[in-house]
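cron nightly-structures :: item 1 of 1
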Amino acid sequence: MAATSLHDVVRLRPLHSLQQTKEKGPRVRGRLAFPQLYRYKRPLLGLGYGNRSFITCYRDQSTESGGSVLRVSDIKEKCNKWQWKGQYSINYFVSSSSSKAESKSSLLLVHGFGASIPHWRRNIGTLSQDYSVYAVDLLGFGASDKPQGFPYTMEAWAQLILDFLNEVVQKPTVLIGNSVGSLACVIAASESSQNLVRGLVLLNCAGGMNNKAVVDDWRIKLLLPLLWLFDFLLKQRGIATVVFERAKQRDNLRNILLSVYGNKESVDDELVEIINGPTNDEGALDAFVSIITGPPGPNPAQLMPRINLPVLVLWGDQDPFTPLDGPVGKYFSSLPSQSSNVSLFVLEGVGHCPHDDKPDLVHEKLLPWLAQLAAL
């Protein structure tokens, strides 16, 4: 955790991290390319250090999936299509099981790189008990169009979000994003001029569309020449095809997911298929190359000062992509001391996708925040 974290930074410790057994032995914590071994240590209940609080959470294991989990097949069957700019088919989902939702802000879920609407399958059921929940497949992902030759940018995705709010949702909405989906939400909120955005929830926000954005991280600086070389090679169609075909193999996807999830049990066959399925669509290769080699987009540090909306930041502390000790993690850790509209909670034992990794911990902080927002 960065030294700038303050009193409103709370660490939530999941139950599995408290159980020290000989059978489990050491686990591997990923930090970029340098994994390290560590053993579980029994925490001291109620312990606090200075202005930082530690909350140990004991819970029923049956609730670890965050309540009801929707079947992927049911999500796909209930999806709708929206024509963006009159030419691009965008896949979206909407769910509401409560009459109370009409009087509250809607929620829009925006996935991260390589993911899609079903990545929220552990969250939609819980959130839709009190809210109208929308989820969208960004252009180039999921069941949305993947047009060849389209110049993918963070700004384009942000405009898609704003147009979706204006044309489909048509009411003030809380944007909830993960990774690059978070950054797209930040851009959208910073550019919204029609009071469409009611609040922001950022789950391990990315620093850009690709790693070239985080040039202040010494780890990225070391790899930057290789990243530029990789960009050059990816622009060669034959090389890009080989790289993409290898990357989307299920075993490789599983290993990548295992490296970015704290709760390894969440990395199941269904999750692998959620990521793998859309990679077989026409245009998926072009989208992959454009996103990896394209401009990283604006840095969140440039955008957040423009946003006066309530912001909830949830950050998994085992994220190898945007680690807490990296530039993006440090920046968001410092925000609560600079902006009264920002609340930050660090989730212990959680990786890059908190909502799917440990949904119970996310809901535990998200639901009270949403309720407080509704009361404002």
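cron nightly-structures :: done
The two ends are 31 Å apart (CA to CA).
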